[in-house]
Amino acid sequence: MASVLIPLAEGFEEVEAVALVDVMRRGGIDVRIAYIDESLGHGKVVIGAHGIGIKADTSIKNVISEDFDMMVLPGGWGGTYALAENSRVLELLKEFKEEKVVGAMCAAPYALKKAGVLGNHYTCYPGAQEEIDQPGYRDDMKVVTDGNVMTSQGPGTAVCFGLAIVERLVGKESMQTVKEAMLLDYC
Amino acid sequence: MASVLIPLAEGFEEVEAVALVDVMRRGGIDVRIAYIDESLGHGKVVIGAHGIGIKADTSIKNVISEDFDMMVLPGGWGGTYALAENSRVLELLKEFKEEKVVGAMCAAPYALKKAGVLGNHYTCYPGAQEEIDQPGYRDDMKVVTDGNVMTSQGPGTAVCFGLAIVERLVGKESMQTVKEAMLLDYC
Predict the structure, then answer these.
(1) Are the beta carbons of B34 and B79 closer than 8 angstroms?
(2) Which of B183, B184, B185, B187 to mutate to test the interface with A (most CBs of A within 10 A)?
(3) Would the CB atoms of A52 and B52 count as touching at under 8 Å?
(4) CA B86, CA A49: separation in Å to the nearest integer?
């Protein structure tokens, strides 16, 4: 069974995070949500950019890359800056880039850049490429795959990004089944 | 400021609930999430159909219809059946239909039917119309508005449903701003 790690930090974009988890779990992927703020306490609820609290499964401290096939970062600038400043997240991004797959969407390709793992071709939220400040930005694709680095644009493309990950880690047939069940004909 | 009530019961469709809250809050609507299961405890985390836990703001017991302009139900069969069996939810649906606006998507128009407030024209998740068993099903529109009853199809149309609610309760300009910011050109 394919497995994916999603780190969440306060200020993450809620519809991006939840769309990714929902689509990937429907596609048969074992998705684990990891919080990075150790002050959260037992509730493990991480608050997003629009005040929606999502319960995480574990702490990033308990995570080892060996247990996963991919690591994906949802966007939202608050969450992105927090992830980009977290040494364990940056370390994991490097490990995943070396041996597995990394992904990021919206503002979060900024964290890939910080970790030095952003590809030569990528996409992100329109305007975020100025902050990311690296050549190779593509504005004409919802999802850009460059080797083992996958990126996507923003809230409206999150479900399509989830489908692209399901296709890569599980297969085209599973992707197609989820696409039809979720009424995602626009992806 | 417009305000919307979203009741959540275990087994709700996560991307539908979160897309609705995210889009509506971006559109300037005060959204309150209410849980119906009194055994939840202080954490107030309601678990969705794909294992994602969302923190609710309050209990449905603390809610009065006077504080809101609309009540919207996300889908997912587990959550839908639980809402449709909850007497307080059915009572609120009748109050909102009389004096305000009600909405439901995916499987949840079933709860509107149970409360006797489903309109003459509606949409829902393809196949759910058999369980709803009421004439007037439309399969050709992402969002159907019939007077003060709004319905939508499923996960892939949740963001578009949110935009339609923002347009109705706040205005076209706010809707357009959210649509562009979230890259929802397919709505």
Answers:
(1) no
(2) B183
(3) no
(4) 31
Alpha-carbon gap, residue A12 to B154, rounded angstroms: 24
B67-87 as b/e, with b when 16 or more CB fall inside 10 Å?
ebbbbbbbbbbbbbbbbbebe
Pairing of strands B149-152, B58-59: unpaired
Strand A149-152 relative to strand A101-105, pairing: parallel
Task: State how beta strands A3-8 and A70-73 pair.
Answer: parallel
Position A39 confidence tier, pLDDT thresholds 50, 70, 90:
confident
Residue A52 has pLDDT above 80, yes or no: yes
Q: CATH homologous superfamily of domain A3-181?
A: Class I glutamine amidotransferase (GATase) domain (3.40.50.880)
Residue that is written with structure tokens 């159907």 in the block: B144
The distance of B25 to chain A (nearest Cα, Å) reads 7
Q: Where are the domains of chain B?
A: 3-181
Active site residue A187: no
Tokens of A170: 């599980």
Q: What is the pLDDT of residues B105-153, one digit of tens each?
A: 999 999 999 999 999 999 999 999 999 999 999 999 999 999 999 999 9
Report the alpha-carbon distance of residue B184 to residue B143 in Å, rounded.
15
